Amino acid sequence: MENHVLVGCIQTLNKVIRTRFFYVSKETNEVKDVTLELCNAIENFNDHARKIRDTGEYAMFIPYDFKDGLAEYSFGCGLSHYLQRNEFENIITRSQKELSFPLEKCRISMYTPDDVKHILSCQGVFDMNITQSLKERFGIKEIA
Q1: Is residue 62 a contact partner of residue 86, using CB atoms and an 8 Å limit?
Q2: Which of 11, 58, 69, 75 is the most buried (most CB within 10 A)?
Q3: What pLDDT is stored for residue 1 in this prediction?
Q4: Is the CB of residue 134 less than 8 Å from the CB of residue 31?
Q5: Mean pLDDT, residues 28-51 taken together
Q6: DSSP-based three-state secondary structure for 89
Q7: Do the bridges between strand 4-13 and strand 107-111 make them parallel or antiparallel, or are there none, so unpaired?
Q8: What pLDDT is attached to residue 143?
Q9: How many Å apart are CA 46 and CA 30, to the nearest integer?
Q10: 32 with 101: CB under 8 angstroms?
Q11: For the chain, what are the domain ranges?
């Protein structure tokens, strides 16, 4: 396993996908919710894209919104909808403040609602055991 993973745990897979994102690090033995931080960075990325589009040039847009602790985006372009590893560096560059995790080093891993239930053994993305389940899934050792 790579040392840095951005894990998306999907709550709903309908017309609108609702996802909670976690940063998983084997280097620091941590799992933390980074949904708000990621959405804020994407918002800054999109602000920059809008300015480019206003000049008539093409710029990719990542249509994410933050609502009720989750990233919301439309169904239709994959489980992460335009959030791709090859854009991580651009998201960091456009972010107005430094992220608390190294997004540029992360690979992305998405879990559907069935994966959350059957692989992580959680009832949903806000299950009180989800962080522990992710630690176990990714081989994070508890430090005594």
Answers
A1: no
A2: 11
A3: 55
A4: yes
A5: 93
A6: helix
A7: parallel
A8: 63
A9: 29
A10: yes
A11: 4-137
